[in-house]
Amino acid sequence: MSRSSPPLSGWHAEDVKAAIRKQGVTLTDLARANGFGESYLRNTLMRPLYEGEQIIARFLRTPAETIWPDRYDANGKPNYRRWHLQRSSRKRRAAA
Predict the structure, then answer these.
(1) Inter-residue contact 88 to 80 (CB < 8 Å)
(2) SS3 assignment for 51-90
(3) Which of 3, 22, 40, 62 is 20–30 Å from 89 (CA)?
(4) Rounded to two decimals, what is the model's pTM?
(5) Residue 60: left if φ>0, alpha if ψ -120 to 50, beta else—which one?
(6) 13-21 vs 50-60: helix axis angle to the nearest 10?
C-alpha cells in the first residue's frame, strides 16, 4: 500500500521562481529591492510569510490567493494568522 501526498493547490514554488526569472529578476533581487534579506522571499515559497507573498504577488500582477490558495480564505484574507495566534495562546496556557 502506497502513501499518497495531499493534492497540491496553487502554483508550484518552481513556477513562481520561473515567472520572476522570466522578467529578468531573481528572488534575491526582488527581496533586496523591497528592503528584505536575500533569503526572505525564498522562505515565502516554503512557508506563509504575508509580506513576502504580497511582494511576489504584486510583482507578478497576480493575487496572492491565486498563487497560494491554501494560505487564504474565501474572502482573500490570510487563514494562517489565526493558526499562529491559536498556537501561541496554546503555548501560553501550557506554560501557566
Answers:
(1) no
(2) HHHHHHHHHHCCCHHHHCHHHECCCCCECHHHHHHHHHHH
(3) 40
(4) 0.75
(5) alpha
(6) 50
- Rounded distance, CA 88 to CA 33, Å? 32
Cα 92 to its chain centre, rounded Å, is 26
Q: Furthest-apart CA pair in the chain: how many Å?
A: 52
Q: What radius of gyration do the chain's Cα atoms show?
A: 16
Location of C-alpha cell 528592503: 35
Say which amino acid occupies 44: T
How far is it, in rounded angstroms, from Cα 80 to Cα 15? Answer: 22
C-alpha cell at 40: 526572505
Cell digits of residue 66: 491565486
C-alpha cell at 13: 514554488
